[in-house]
Amino acid sequence: MKPTTAPSAATALLDYPAAQAHLGGVSRSLVKGLVANKEIPTVKLGRRTMFRRDELDAFVERKAKVTTV
């Protein structure tokens, strides 16, 4: 049997409240809008919608580059 390891912090999955907090405490409706506009990808696990931490960080980086140009 293979030993199990915890996922790295970069690939950890976050639920809606954790994603909201990770993005600075934004509202759930803002996150839902970003998902609807395909600005942040999601991972479906059964009925749950989850977010990869590294994808949220990449989204923030893209937004930071747009506003500084």
Q: What is the averaged pLDDT score?
A: 88
Task: Kindly report the oligomeric state of this protein.
Answer: single chain
Largest sheet: 3 strands, antiparallel
Strand content: 5-15%
**Coarse structural class:** alpha+beta
**Between the first and last Cα atoms, what is the distance in angstroms?**
51 Å
| Strand order, largest beta sheet | 1-3-2
Note the overall shape: globular
Number of domains: 1
Could you outline the blueprint of secondary structure elements for this entry?
Blueprint: E1 13-14, H1 16-22, H2 28-36, E2 43-45, E3 48-52, H3 53-68
Antiparallel strand pairs: 1-3, 2-3
Describe the structure.
The chain is an alpha+beta fold and 69 residues long. It has one domain. It is built from three helices and three strands. It has helices at residues 16-22, 28-36, 53-68, and strands spanning 13-14, 43-45, 48-52. It has a three-stranded antiparallel β-sheet with strand order 1-3-2. A hairpin with a 2-residue loop joins strand 2 (43-45) and strand 3 (48-52). The longest helix has 16 residues, at 53-68. The chain is globular and about 50 Å long. The termini are far apart. The model has no long low-confidence stretch (mean pLDDT 88).
Summary?
The protein has helices at residues 16-22, 28-36, 53-68, and strands spanning 13-14, 43-45, 48-52. With 69 residues, it is α+β, with helices and mostly antiparallel strands.
Identify the notable features of this structure and list them briefly.
single chain; 69 residues; alpha+beta; 3-stranded antiparallel β-sheet
